Each structure stands twice: as C-alpha cells, then as structure tokens.
Protein: UPF0235 protein RBJ67_12855
Amino acid sequence: MSAVSICADGLVLRLYIQPKASRDSIVGLHGDELKVAITAPPVDGQANAHLTKYLAKQFRVAKSQVIIEKGELGRHKQVKILDPQSIPTEVAALTEQE
Structure:
C-alpha cells in the first residue's frame, strides 16, 4: 500500500504527522507514508482539527470531506479526502507512481 491511493470517491492518504512544527507543510515521503508538518500541538484533538482544516484547504474541499479513518490518537493516520477539487503537487507526484 502506498502513501497515496485513489479510491472510488476520492483519495486515501497514509500520513505521518509532525506536530508543533514551525509551519504547516506537506514535507514528502517518510517511509511508505506522507509526512505532514503542522503547527498545532498534539493536545485535546487540536492537531487533528488543525490537520483537517489544513488538508481541506490544500485539496479545496469542505472540512467535512476530510475524514480521519484511522489513527486519531497517534502520529500515523489514514485520512480520506472525498472528491478533491485540487491536488497539491507533492501528493500528485505520488499518485502517478501507481
């Protein structure tokens, strides 16, 4: 399974989250996951809320279209993006390897 896979209703991303980073960014591959740095601390779901908001902005979708399927409490997450309107360059590069 790769870091980014295409499914019928959107994309599934396997992420490795780096909280408390200096800025929000999609860093690139980290093993077989996509590393995403976010500024929020991993406290009381703040990082998940921030991640959802950041990914929604990157893929130009509503926050409700970003679903954390696995790993809500850990750094390793599986996130589904429903019907993405835009795909960030770092992610697009990974979808073409399939």
In short: The chain has a mean pLDDT of 93.
